[in-house]
Amino acid sequence: MLRWKYSRQLLAVVLVLFAIAPMLGGNPLAQPGLQQTLAVAFIYGGLALTYDLLFGFTGLLSFGHAIYFGSGMYITCILINHDVVPWYLAMVIAVAITAIFAMLVGMASLRTTGITFAMVTLAFGEAGHVIINRNFFGLTGGENGIALDATKVPQFWIGVVNTKYLYWTALLALIIVYAIIWWITESSAGRVFAALRDNELRVQVLGLDTQKFKLLSFVIAGSLASFLGVIMLLAAGSAAPRFADANLTIALLLMVILGGAVTRWGAVIGGILYSVATTRMQDLTQQPFFTDLPKIVGGPLSEPALTLGILFILVVMFAPGGLSGAYYKLRARAIAKK
User: Of 307 and 52, which is predicted with more confidence?
Assistant: First the structure.
């Protein structure tokens, strides 16, 4: 079965094709609109993977993960707009500050477990969202957010003509995040994360400090989310409260479950599909077909969340392991037939 044996090589070929497609005319990826859509999708794919490190690999159900994504966006934008440091230092500082923030939140939250831990992270996330929404020290712009000063970043990221550079930047960011998480989860620390997810008491019996490993996973996931927030700032052109909302964290949970937890690539596929589906459904519901339907039918169908919710239910019912789980089931059946 060649399609199973050479799956990694096939993935490499797909990445190369995605990378060179914008340079070739006569294909959809040469269009700025699709490039922008996929750039955002790549970012969400990476963000879902950072959440999978917490939820899938370490077994930590956090409802405040989006605040680190928003933190990367806001800190970078504020530092750039106010000429505190050059744009590249602003990005590094934003990730560093967010890492410290994640460490402090993790140290407090990890004193609890289970649903209590989830609620504490939600409380911290909501507190951060409120601060952003209230225009903290006149820096965050309140409900309207803050626009990035385009004159203070490299111009190859600015303008419709340069959308392909944002596309490549987002794709590179996704590859970097994937490589880092692959390296971590394949290391000895990653095996401890998995053991914590399966049986924390057994890890304690082995004499390992479970809190330190949980905190390590928490900080790494938050830092990488912040890094992707920096890239989203470039793609969106502004920082807005919706990027730090708890609803985004819930969406990340759906992405991971849709793609399949603990497989890395499953979370990425789930994030990309969710992002693209959300964007396309918003466009689709504006078509005459939906507007001409009776309100009792067209009203609910015009809400992308309803369609995505139905899709999520179907995945949970018929493919509990997500898309990656379905893939591995097919692979096992194919091997069994050999």
Answer: 52
